[in-house]
Amino acid sequence: MNTKEFDDRLRKAAERAESVLKSHLPAETGQQKEIFEAMNYSLMAGGKRLRPILMEETYRMCGGKQDKVIGCFMAAIEMIHTYSLVHDDLPAMDNDRYRRGRETTWYVYGDAMGILAGDGLLNYAFETALKAVAYVDREMCGNEVSDSAALSDGEKLARLRSIWRAISVLAGKAGAFGMIGGQAVDIMAEGRKQEEMTQEQLLFIHEHKTAALIQAAMMVGAILAGASEGQVTALEKCAYNIGIAFQIQDDILDVVGDSKELGKPVGSDAQNHKQTYVTLKGMEQAKTDVEELSREAIRILDGFEGEHEFLSQLILTLIHRSK
Hints:
By secondary structure, this protein is mainly α. 71% of the residues lie in helices and 2% in strands. The protein has helices spanning 3-23, 33-43, 50-61, 67-88, 105-109, 111-136, 153-174, 179-189, 199-224, 229-256, 259-262, 268-271, 277-281, 283-302, 309-319, and strands spanning 98-99, 102-103, 140-141, 144-145. Helix 10 packs antiparallel against helix 14 (283-302).
């Protein structure tokens, strides 16, 4: 796949994810209208929509065909990712007034409403994921009828079980044993001296704070497509590699990146005396580990029979980015 073909497909995948997300936005009505406005303001703040794209591409690779069911989970994972950013920006956390070139949610609506908007997005994510049950159960979801009317009872039960398992994975990877746990350890590490951070602690933060939602995206896509237990486990490892390599590359770019291309100043980690993979292992080892993690991730994908050329190229582009 050449660069133009890849860029075209990525653009279409992002447009599809954006369209799916918009179709699940809460209506801005009722006495609690402002919370819905704040939630939608957060969701429509832009972004690459990488997690829903990874989810759908994995779903397709594993043989999935039902757009409505996977769409509920695509929207849900982007809501979870967005809520985490809303809370990260709060005064009690990073105290950021701008994200992606516009004012952050708490700065526009106040920090109390910012907290509630994040809470609302997290809860609404699971409400949205559960809409998939209605499709399988031949009920109405929005204005469309389920496409599962012809399913036998056995097929319907199997599909419902896959939805419950997907929700369980999504909840686990987003919660205190996943992303929130990584964020908590990262906060606790802020008061420590740079030399006190071990490689084990740093990898724990990267695995849980970043890789966990990537794992959720790919595992949920596989589960909903009916992949085997072994395939789901393999994709969990693949996504772990992607998340860790992504964070190592982030550390590398903070040292050697171009501030104009990155859109932020480089060298901030050193100025803040922050322990990174580069300070722990050195630049050359960091680059070597990114390559090894990347190659192993692609080898895992190559073990799948479904088409995954675009998915592989997307992963390599994500990991080896220059901004």
